[in-house]
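U., I forgot to send this yesterday:
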Amino acid sequence: MPTDTGKRWVDLPWDECNTFCESIPFADAPLFYQYITSFHWAVSQTTLGSMEVNPVSGWERVFNILSLMVGFLFGSTLVSLLSAVMVEIQARNRDRHQKMHMLRRYMI
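Result:
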């Protein structure tokens, strides 16, 4: 179904440049290229790496996808480590407050 502009991204031509250049519709491109392009779009929408980089071949897309996944891995690891540290600090504070409460009760 077309968008409000009447065009879809899959209707854009795909350039096959080996010995000569010809533009063919995306739907007629090789299945590997269609899959990698769709997966690249999905990964870039999930992560912070919008499609600023426009790879030309399927292998460039694979490299871009792997780079996005590595970035996603590092980002999620950082968030996980920060969350673990915050939970540990909260547990220490709770334990310290509980010990102080017990000490006050003992001293009274």
